Amino acid sequence: MTPDADDRAPHPTEEQAAESSRSVPPPANTHARTRRHGPFTVVEVTGEIDLATAALVTEHLDAATARPESDVLVDLRRVDFFDCSGLRVLCRAETRARYRGGRLRVVSDPRIRRLLRGAGLLDRFALLPRIPGEEGILREEGVPGEEGVPGEDG
Prior knowledge:
Radius of gyration: 15 Å
Low-confidence stretches: 8-22, 137-154
Distance between the termini: 30 Å
Largest sheet: 5 strands, mixed
């Protein structure tokens, strides 16, 4: 199964999408939480993302991409491990966002960039080194990879 196999999954009906857009984000769990930051819906992902934990991220990404024209940032800087299950979830969410006229971008460090390149998915995702408008906050927290420069493979 390829990472984009879920791209071919049926999309919800308009009624289901409208119902989802009225709902609030799912509660935070051990691997994902959703918050608003200005015009963005930010899904922060942490820990090890694999077959056993990918569903915890999926519920947040599904809610974030349910609205038309959503602008979703998936923050992967605190991820320790990310396998093909995580890639599949990202691909599905990116397809859902694009289908609804929105976009999904990945906030990452050079490790995730290398993973996407190795999987042949680098061109599919717009990568950001940080969440726009949070530069000072992140430096204070000491986020790994903060010194990374876009395009660097470190």
